[in-house]
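Now for today's protein.

===
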Amino acid sequence: MDTSNALLFIFVAFLAAKIGGEVMERLRMPAVTGELIAGIILGPTLFNIITSQDTFFEVLAQLGATFLLFSVGMETKLAELKKVGTTAASVAILGVVMPFILGYYVSILMFASSIEAMFIGASLVATSVGITARVLDDMGMIHTQEAKIILGAAVFDDILGMIVLTLVGGVAAGQLSYLNLAIVIGESLCFVAIVVMLGTRIVRYASGKREVRFDRTTGGAWAVHYSTRAFHRDNWLNKLVQKQAPFVVILIVIFGLSAMASEVGLAAIIGAFFAGLIFSDTKETYELEQKFEPLNVLLVPFFFVVMGARVDLRNVTGVVPFAIVMTIIAILSKLIGCSLGAVTKGERTALIIGAGMVPRGEVGIVVAMMGLTMGTISLDTYSVIILVSLATTLYAPFLIKTVIKAESKNGAQRWTTRRSRS
């Protein structure tokens, strides 16, 4: 890209993304859909302003993905996840196994190569929980049991999904042996354990955050305790003389964990996700939502625009039937698999959780981007994955609302029937 035109291209891309997002928001649809469509329009399909050779936009997209995953992690609290851990793990496991197996074998039947079929299966594994969280928030259900299980399951299936992607990438590169497989899994699990257990303690120590727990000696009242002498210290991050020192340190942690995740074989954005997770309990202390919102507003749209620009609709006519079949598989595999994982919580809860795990959104797009970057999937296969991600993103809000309303109506009818019989 000519540096003299960089600002012009930034202006055009950002304006198109925001216009697309505004239109979708007014239609009560996710803004991400409008940003993807803006990217498709600016890409080779129409204007060819953004191409796969634009390293500048690729960097902007990577930064956008990093801050997006940090924000998602920041909305997830470990304490809440522990309460629904067993059910969330069951939902995640079935929500990974069923989409991958169905995606792989259906792709083989649709004449995809084995390597490409594995990438398609991997793209169906992980859930884009941000879309679901927004729908549940709009419906006043963000603090319900269903929402907590969905968030917990999304954490588990993001981890499982990245392990699956790592394995698929290793197979595609011809560098995966049983020893390498064990090393990848071991490094991934160690990275997750160390970051979650050690990272949260370091953050609490650094922030001087107080620990609140139930005290039986006070007659059932909640009391404030200081678990170690660290809680008696002032917040040492605020003692740094540099302007916005806590914010600067957090940025360093985000980039550092992203680099570490990449080194151990996970996607870099998983490091950003865990950075958000360990700072989730202190986001109010440092006003992280207010400080990172401008960065998200600026950078996240570039990620979706660049991902959309990779789709060339001039050449997708031949893959539309394939995309339709895979979209049906993507919806049914998550809906059925995740519902079975939560069946012990009741039919209503299970169906809502299954519907909430359907959208792939940016997660499927990330998988497609990695496959294309590695040169292991064709542009046709990339386009199929993008179309599936776009379709599930569009359909998921309608599916979630339909399931919630239908189950609420059925519950009211059952209550009326029982009342009339009594």
Remarks:
- The domain at 3-421 is CATH 1.20.1530.20 (Na+/H+ antiporter like fold).
- The chain has a mean pLDDT of 77.
